[in-house]
Amino acid sequence: MLLEDHDRLTAQIEELSTRIEQAIAAIDPTPPPDDDHPTRMALLDRLDEIPGVGRDTAAAIVAEIGVDMSIFPTPGHLASWAKLVPRTIQSGAKNTHGPAGKGNGWLKGPLGQAAMNAGRTKTFLGARYRRIVKHAPAKKAMVAVARNILEICWILIDDPTHGSATWARTGTTDTSTAPERPAKPSASTPASERG
To answer: What is the pLDDT of residue 173?
Structure first.
């Protein structure tokens, strides 16, 4: 009887996993690969490349934040909505930092697990976790890495053509196609030319 229960539950889990994959594929804004972007990947595949994030975690993130990132103008707005930023408590002229807040438990739980997994890797997320945990509690390091993971998710969801593999390895984007910033005027530049 226990084996029958196990088989029945396994079949139900597989059916639900298939339904989740189909639902996410239906809302995935990623256009199919073309000549300009032959390696374009589906949404879950892009999020799965982030260190510490598996397909289940990626599905949970998409389920909680959706695929329309116009709601959150910047990655920082999304992190603030998810309560992954420290609060500032102000009393008169005194400012102190407080806890991040409760936020969405269905989002923070998978992100916390992903942050702990990423902390064990040899990536920039793991290095960040180890650097913070040297001088702060492990929970603060976990929240900081979870915020980084969520910000990376915002970028990968917002721009399907973004190089997710580059993010997963280094934490930076390929800047070869980024527009150049104008040079800052030096102190020796005349005021009339500084603009």
So the answer is: 46
